[in-house]
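Thread: quick sanity check before group meeting

JM: Hey all, I'm pulling together slides for Thursday and realized we never actually wrote out the predicted structure for the chain we discussed last week. Dropping the sequence here so it's in one place. If anyone has concerns about the input, flag it before I start.
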Amino acid sequence: MGLLAALVRGARLCDGNITSTMPSGVARAGRGVTAAGEGSAVAPVAANNTVPQVLRNQAAGNAARDAIAAARPGSLIEQNFRVTGGLRRVDVLDGLTAIESKVGRTSLTPAVRQELARDIKLLRSGQVEAVEWHFFPSPTTGLSGPTGPLRAKLIQFGITIVE
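JM (edit): ok, ran it. Output follows.
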């Protein structure tokens, strides 16, 4: 079983809520909140105790982000940067390296294009020195990685791809 699958499966039900298993020592500084440790509630479970797909997707994304942060001691999660055109929230900030985590097969959708454009602005403005996009298999489909067009854009702009 892969690390992401283990982390996603590690999410548990507690009093009708899904709880995450964020590793101890992972700092969460986004939105002015700091938290470390395990057991923060994510969202309520449907009445029949099945977890809606949107919440499973969110848990998988959070687990991927937390796995990256846990592997990089001292890193911060969900950090906001101001760039022309709005804010860019990076999943993990390790020193001056911005890291985006993606779960499942990822296409060059309008939302992904916007993230990419803002990452390029972060690099060009010097707010970060490097950008990495990490891809994890979907626990639902088993698919992973960028599509051809997204891969080409990431390479074109010098963004590291980690699969």
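AS: nice. The chain has one domain: 3-162. Confidence is low (pLDDT under 50) at residues 1-46.
JM: adding both to the slides.
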